[in-house]
Amino acid sequence: MNTELRKRLFRLNADLAGSRLSAEDAIWLACDLLVAEVDTPAVVELATASLKSTYPPEAAELFEQVLAELGIEPMTHQEASWWFARDIAGLMAAGELDRQDGENEMRAIGIELGNIELMPGRLSPAEIIRAADDRLRTWTA
After folding, report:
1. CA quadruple 38, 14, 132, 32: dihedral, nearest 10
2. Which residues contact 35 (CB under 8 A, 6 or more apart)?
3. Could you give the residue ranges of the DSSP H alpha helices within 36-116?
4. Mind listing the pLDDT tens digit for each residue in 82-126?
5. Which of 2, 23, 78, 126 could be bridged to 59 by S-S, CB 3.0 to 4.6 A?
């Protein structure tokens, strides 16, 4: 599996933990996994699901099966919060998201997923990126 597919897989894993999984994104990822010759039974079932009639809970259940078949543990809320925080901190550090908006997003993620370390003022964007990388390296190894 190439790096881009692996990143999308982990992003959807975080979306699943945060109850944000898009059925459409999960189905398209499954299609791309099939093209990459990752053809487990759950990948095939998810890839052949209808974009119009597959609802997020159904997609989530199939995506959990995909993760299991690939030997990937579903992310916890804590792990997902660091995954999302790393993306936000990266945008802030690159100047693509202003500090106030980034802190508001961090606060929302911290509250939603129960991670007090993401509350504004606790860590700088660079510290969040480092902390997230350390944690995610352990969790996604």
Report:
1. 30
2. none
3. 41-47, 56-69, 77-93, 99-113
4. 999 999 999 998 999 998 899 899 889 888 888 888 877 778 888
5. 23
